[in-house]
Amino acid sequence: MDSRDFDQLEREAYRLMSPGAAAFAMCGADDEITTAENAKAWRALRLRPRVLRDITKVDSSTLVLGERVDTPLMVAPMGRHRAYHPEGEAATARGATMAGAIFVEPTNATVSVEDVARQRGSAPQWFQLYLPPGMKEREALVERVAAAGYGAIVLTVDQPIGGSSPRAAREPIPPSADIRHVNLPGHPPATTAYDPVRKGVLNYPTTWSDLEWLVKRSALPVIAKGVLRDDDAVRCVERGARGILVSNHGGRHLDTTVTTVEALPEVVAAVGRRVDVYVDGGIRRGTDILKALALGARAVLIGRPVLWGLTLGGADGVRDVLRHLDDELRLAMALSGVPTVADATPDLVAFGRSG
Ligand SMILES: Cc1cc2nc3c(=O)[nH]c(=O)nc-3n(C[C@H](O)[C@H](O)[C@H](O)COP(=O)(O)O)c2cc1C
Hints:
- The longest helix is centred in the last third of the chain and has 32 residues, at 304-335.
- The strands form three sheets. An eight-stranded parallel β-barrel has the order 4-5-6-7-8-9-10-11, surrounded by six helices. A two-stranded antiparallel ribbon has the order 1-12.
- It has one domain: TIM Barrel (Alpha-Beta Barrel), CATH 3.20.20.
- The radius of gyration is 19 Å and the shape is globular.
- The protein is built from twelve helices and twelve strands.
- By secondary structure, it is an alpha/beta fold.
- Flavin mononucleotide binds next to helix 2.
């Protein structure tokens, strides 16, 4: 697959999805400015390739939370995969496993933490947590995740309240009896944060004390997802977070935030020596990934493109999308004189220049 085929794959996937599923995947908040700018910001950065380096062997493996993984790609947590393929998150997790990538199972999954855990390969799996309001439910969910062998908990901190997406509200995913939030008590039918009934509802009122509670309560490392400022990153680390995921939720909740390209350097400067920093949002090319690694990200998370692969080819489609991106990354590394991920340093990127 080359990049042109990859763009084609996106168009085909959106054609194949039901209108509600396509709107839910594509949407950004309000005018979708941040969603569009995330991708443009990576493209606007320019590389400063090194020449005359020995690149006979290019290795994209890296260390994540101190463990070696085959690729710096991970699957971003996204809810409701059974709206895209009958096997849902089980297929996505299997595809990630085939590509050696970490899969992040979301709280709002349509396949349970236990069933997804059965698809695990050599790469660990992580769990994305939206804290349920009741203490009993919280404890039970955190315990289930640990018992199923997940390697880390990614606490999403940027969505206390449902945002507004006109695109998703116009075209809701119709509720279906057999597509349910199976990680939640009572397995309610899967709805989305943009359903008019949930607009403005305080969904997951997570605060600093909740982060502290989770760090104390869970033996698993906790990663804060959705941080865009250095001061917040420092506070998260002071409260025990072992990783920071720089993310604006793919531009889905608050429109006109800074792009993740803009936020990454200040977060890396503030906490990058103490903990892992990851990034997501608009990453669509191997060169985007190389730039993220050069700016100090340990790994990147891929969102929507994974759903394109899932829609078109189930587990194999997910594997192909991830392998395509890793192939492109290794090509970009070779052409930039960067044989290993550790060689990707900030001097590779020229800020403030666009073509
Ligand atoms: C369909 C969809 C559902 C998502 N659901 C969640 C979720 O349940 N929890 C969460 O933390 N992030 C969620 N996200 C945000 C992603 O984890 C990620 O931050 C974002 O999609 C990355 O940007 P990209 O899609 O441009 O790669 C979702 C994103 C999409 C596209």
